[in-house]
Structure formats: C-alpha cells, structure tokens
Specification:
This protein is mainly beta. It has three helices and 16 strands. Strands 7, 8, 9, 10 and 11 form a five-stranded antiparallel β-sheet that branches.
C-alpha cells in the first residue's frame, strides 16, 4: 500500500512540551535502548543500502518476546500524556506483534535520572502519521492515521489516542459513517467493483485555540474486468489490480469538539459522496 510518509515517519513536535526546553529529545537509538537489550542495524533496511537501528530480539513485554524479529520505531511524539510534569514521549512501534494485534504497538517513555524508561505499552497498528493536540484536561492526545492490508484488500484507520487510567486507548474517528478502504491491490471484487478510497497526509489548518485538521481523500470505483474462456474469473469479476483507479479528490476537515474529533460542516457533503461508493461495494450478509 502506498504511503506518503518519509522513512519511519519520525516526527517531533517538541514545542507542545516546554519541559524539553532544557534537554535534548530522544533519538531513535535512545528509544530502542530503553525498550530492549540488543540494538543493531536492521538487516531488512541493509539490503536497500540504508542504516536503520532496530531491536533485533523482541522485548519481554511484546507478544513475540525472545524471538529474533525486528522491532522498529515509526514515530516519536512529545507531550504531557500523564500530567506528571516530566519529559514524556509516545512512541509508535512496528514489529513483534501478530496481525490480530495490529503488527505493532505504542510505548510511553519518561525521562528520569538521565535515562528514558518505559512506563506503559499497548498493541496497535503502526500508524504512519500522528498529530498531537491538547485535550480539555491539558493532557496531550494524538490524532493518528494508519492502514492495514489483507489478501489485496485493506482499510485506513483514523484514530484518536489518549492515555487514561494508565492505559493507552484508541478510539475511531467517525467520519459520519463513511469508510476509507480499498480492494485494488489484487483483492477480490466487491459486488463486481474494484475501488480505492484513500487519504493523503493530514495537515494542521487551525490554531491552538481552535484545532482543525484537513486531508485530501481520493475516491475511485470501476467495474471489475470480466474473465474469458482462457482466463476465467469469479462471477464478480477478475481480481482488482489497477493501483491507480481514476477518481475524485475530496477535501475533508476535522475539528475538535468536547475532546472528540468530528467532521466539519463543510465536509459533510463530500462524506455523503464517499458513502455512496461504500454502499455500492457493501456485501450484503
């Protein structure tokens, strides 16, 4: 699945946490050393000529603890997540978890006595982009975008991350019922259609007093190709393999209302168009 983020999507928004004014933010290597005993260059990225540090053995707090798999850092976000008046970062991780758990996790680290220590951990999908925001409690939350793929079909996740009661929680952002998904990466047709509803990178468009975020949503749909005697396909059509389905680009805006991200009124008409495509490809049970 194509994404617009740079390598590992590392992003530091340290201005949200004034506690970092007196010390340097953690590097990827700092983060990894706080999570595992063995930090080494990735064998996967070595093949591409890039040097990227990873945990080469899964840490004890992950599902695959002790196994020789790579755990990598996809994002580091600073903030005041627990109200402890300490330097804290929430780290997005990839690896050492099964598909059912999202292939990754999130770890809250705190800077204490000149070193970074893991405070909390929870499984999640490895989000490609997150935007920090301030909740009404003055604690930091994250608005995160990610994706998942299975047998040529997949979906995009727009989630709101918070830490409450010493638990990392993620809640789906409701786009008025519209869904962001696709089947055009060699997936099976749905009701005879191939489709792709995919978001671009989020951008901050509001102010600290009136937080707003926007992103472009590309939506395309086409009839699945029919098979032939030589190359028969299912009754629904052949596999969907057109990665660049032509479609329409819609602007979607989000605003923060009572600590919940919701679509702006100007976005509702565009979301109705997305729901029309959703309905066409919805499989009746």
């Amino acid at each position: 699945m194509k994404t617009s983020h740079t390598l590992f999507g590392l992003m530091f928004l340290l201005s949200l946490n004034p506690l970092f004014a007196q010390s340097a933010p953690p590097t990827t290597t700092d983060v990894l050393k706080s999570l595992c005993d063995k930090v080494e260059p990735s064998q996967f990225w070595k093949k591409t000529g890039k040097t990227v540090d990873v945990c080469s053995v899964c840490p004890e707090f992950t599902s695959f603890k002790g196994e020789k798999q790579e755990l990598s850092v996809k994002g580091i976000y600073a903030g005041d997540f627990l109200g402890a008046a300490k330097e804290e970062v929430l780290v997005i991780l990839y690896g050492c978890e099964p598909h059912v758990a999202g292939f990754g996790g999130m770890a809250l680290l705190r800077h204490e006595k000149s070193e970074w220590k893991r405070i909390l951990y929870g499984t999640s999908i490895p989000y490609s982009q997150c935007i920090p925001f301030t909740r009404s409690s003055k604690l930091t939350g994250l608005l995160c975008l990610g994706s998942d793929m299975h047998f040529g079909a997949g979906g995009y996740f727009l989630d709101q991350i918070s830490i409450d009661g010493n638990e990392i929680k993620n809640a789906s952002v409701d786009l008025d019922g519209a869904k962001m998904n696709l089947n055009n990466a060699s997936g099976s047709p749905q009701n005879g259609y191939c489709y792709r509803i995919a978001p671009a990178e989020m951008k901050v468009t509001g102010t600290q007093e009136h937080p707003r975020v926007s992103f472009q949503l590309s939506a395309g749909i086409e009839k699945a190709a029919k098979g032939s005697k030589e190359f028969p396909c299912s009754a629904d059509g052949c596999q969907c393999e057109n990665e660049e389905i032509n479609g329409t680009t819609y602007s979607i805006g989000l605003q923060l209302a009572n600590d919940i991200w919701v679509p702006t009124s100007a976005s509702k008409k565009n979301l109705l168009e997305i729901k029309k495509i959703n309905k066409l490809v919805e499989v009746k049970q």
